[in-house]
Specification:
The protein starts with a helix and ends with a helix. A hairpin with a 5-residue loop joins strand 21 and strand 22. It has 441 residues and is of the alpha+beta class. Helix 2 crosses helix 12. The protein is globular. It has twelve helices and 22 strands. 32% of the residues lie in helices and 27% in strands.
Length: 441
């Protein structure tokens, strides 16, 4: 009876429109909301990606009587960084011990597996190898291993060439590796939409197609004006705007730094008949001279194998293809001194990445360091994603999570870098704790 009453109540509060997306393990429900409920709320969350939806869910659980709305500018949830994610459940091997990244990733991975079990969301604990292919990389591997141990990554082990071949029979280029058996893969968009389900089942509201134009504190309330001429009023605002986190914060009077610079990561895919070459995640040893990780092999929940990504400056914040150009985004990047301070010392690296984007054999050479059997004919161009890289005016990449509480009644998530998806449940609790402190809830 209670379930029936709740269902009737939800039907009255909103009308729900579902779009079915068929995945590897059945039908994935993609939530779209078409209702027009009350426009007055206690808390307004801007951004319907995995961080915004996770935060909405956590707030709803802690404060079930608080009226909360999520605004998403697209017609669907989790469209951008969440929807273009590689799908890896990270374990926190790389991150500086004691950092928020390290702490939230470890907790987030454990809770992700528990949540997926609870919600019957399929995942694969397929493991990960970080493979050294030359003696110089071998010398860096132990230091990385020690970081992983300090971060208490479960099951972490150093393995030799023979053990590598037992785990990945075709990875004949490896000399030594770190093995993380608990690293996994999942469909993060499906997870994010499940967060949205939980939030709405608790009485929350999600409004799609609501791109925020201005955020104004008028004393007794905060007015969030959208570009479709609608208005939301709330006592408090939390922004989780990802690729637009700096602009949305600026519209509310937030700090000018950090600035988001979009980098596109382009993937190749193995042809289906060559997928047998890869069992789990195969990653390179990070080179501290360069700002990005390098190409790797990533199995997907649908059975495909992604290879990459590279890292090239995108022509727009939603620049998933080379032809996607936005004049405003280009102008902002061209006049942002921080980008030039990063680009000049890394010019050689940037040019190589651009060349790899255009000339597949160059990227193939990196891939063959691990699995020499991969040939040019085995590759097809695949998906792309855009990384919202937060950058300071001095050209420093902001590597950890960053929050801005400079605006009264507001909390801006200014940087939520990878592994934000893995960490999403832990990040949500942190955002709620910051909101409780800032908003005096």
């Amino acid at each position: 009876m209670l379930a029936q009453r709740l269902a009737r109540r939800l039907d009255i509060v909103r009308q729900r429109c579902w779009q079915d997306v068929t995945g590897n393990n059945g039908s994935i429900r993609q939530l779209q909301i078409t209702h027009n409920p009350s426009q007055n709320y206690d808390i307004c969350i801007v951004g319907g990606g995995i961080v915004g939806l996770g935060t909405a869910r956590a707030l709803n659980i802690k404060y079930p009587d608080v009226k909360i709305v999520v605004l998403e500018k697209e017609d669907e949830l989790a469209t951008h960084q969440t929807g273009h994610n590689s799908g890896v459940i990270h374990m926190g091997i790389y991150y500086t011990p004691g950092s928020l990244k390290a702490r939230l990733c470890g907790e987030g991975a454990r809770r992700t597996y528990e949540y997926c079990d609870e919600k019957a969301i399929p995942y694969k604990r397929c493991g990960k190898l970080i493979v050294a292919t030359n003696e110089e990389e071998v010398s860096r591997l132990d230091a990385l291993y020690q970081i992983g141990l300090k971060n208490e990554v479960p099951g972490l082990a150093l393995v030799d060439r023979q053990q590598i071949l037992e785990i990945e029979p075709y990875c004949t280029g490896g000399l030594m590796a770190i093995h993380s058996p608990n690293t996994g893969i999942v469909d993060w968009k499906r997870v994010a939409c499940s967060y949205g389900d939980d939030f709405m089942a608790g009485g929350g509201t999600i409004l799609t197609g609501r791109e925020v134009d201005t955020i104004k504190d008028v004393g007794k309330e905060i007015r969030v004006n959208c570009k479709d001429k609608s208005r939301i009023t709330a006592k408090h605002v939390i922004t989780c705007a990802g690729l637009y986190s700096d602009r949305v914060a600026a519209r509310a009077g937030g700090k000018s730094s950090p600035t988001i610079v979009p980098f596109r990561g382009e993937y190749l895919e193995l042809r289906p008949e060559k997928r047998y070459l890869v069992r789990g995640n195969i990653y390179p040893v990070p080179n501290p001279k360069f700002p990005f990780l390098g190409v790797h092999y990533t199995p997907r929940m649908d059975g495909s194998i992604w290879l990459g990504p590279n890292a090239v400056l995108a022509g727009s914040r939603e620049g998933y293809s080379r032809s996607s150009i936005n004049k405003r985004d280009i102008a902002e990047m061209a006049t942002f001194s921080g980008l030039w301070k990063l680009a000049v010392p890394n010019l050689s690296y940037g040019l190589k990445e651009m060349a790899k984007s255009a000339i597949l054999p160059l990227q193939l050479a990196d891939l063959q360091k691990f699995i020499p059997e991969v040939k040019y004919a085995d590759l097809v161009r695949g998906s792309s994603g855009v990384r919202a890289q937060a950058m300071s005016v001095d050209g420093t990449l902001v590597d950890d999570f960053e929050f801005d509480t400079s605006c009264p009644g507001m909390l801006h998530v200014r940087n939520a870098p990878s592994p934000a998806a893995t960490s999403s449940l832990a990040i949500a609790d942190l955002v709620v704790a910051r909101a409780v402190e800032s908003f005096k809830l």
